[in-house]
Amino acid sequence: xxxxxxxxxxxxxxxxxxxxxxxxxxxxxxxxxxxxxxxxxxxxxxxxxxxxxxxxxxxxxxxxxxxxxxxxxxxxxxxxxxxxxxxxxxxxxxxxxxxxxxxxxxxxxxxxxxxxxxxxxxxxxxxxxxxxxxxxxxxxxxxxxxxxxxxxxxxxxxxxxxxxxxxxxxxxxxxxxxxxxxxxxxxxxxxxxxxxxxxxxxxxxxxxxxxxxxxxxxxxxxxxxxxxxxxxxxxxxxxxxxxxxxxxxxxxxxxxxxxxxxxxxxxxxxxxxxxxxxxxxxxxxxxxxxxxxxxxxxxxxxxxxxxxxxxxxxxxxxxxxxxxxxxxxxxxxxxxxxxxxxxxx
Length: 345
Fold this sequence. Notes:
345 residues, alpha+beta, 14 helices
């Protein structure tokens, strides 16, 4: 996911409203995605999923199943068209019936593949068709995108404004997963990212005005514009009064409204965003620390280093070398042990 900016390498003439803040955030904090399965599941079946550092998406394309989240006593029934988004590290099981036994998802899918092949076309008509994807984000410094999302989102994606486009996307994804034509390695990750965005859009569409935390703040004319200014120009010497003036509010009124909608002060948000941008630059560029400091609004690498250590609990140089050692050769291969096509039915 691209669409992010770290000044001063940007077009000063761009109108503030032109920046897509959600795309900007996803471009900075998103690391990798994985399609776990696009599978037909014959009863009895159960998948146990535990991803400590991943946000998980499940979509029921046909049939029905039951979801149990964490220690929840009562499972939730999911039917065709239902999508669920579960926050990072939220253990859960999905099974054909309430209280059904579950195996680790990879083992269960390996066994199911053999069962489906042996069962034949007639038996497969009654199978549940499930799509499962996971998303890895930078988890060293929480962003409102993740920290202010509910731990569990449950929507029916066959309803709402974006339903036809979402269904078309699902169909395209299914075809790519099945055929694996030339270029699939480029198309698949983008389509899986798009699933995430569609679910976020659908959830936000159904939230009352003035709610939904950071997401709701993006819809507020004034606070949304202030957030866009921060994202568009993180290198500028922003003050609360200066941001308030840009959007036509007094310092006090702006600070109060920003806190109410976003859940933190404008300057705390600015610092957190600068550090997210800096982390991306450390992961994906060869810029010097002095250069990165300038691009995120600091006069010196020393001041930048202190701010970075407060949010990421390590100096920026250590962060860069640690990242390079964990993911040598490709800083975006955060899921190298689980290839994109490893679990497709």
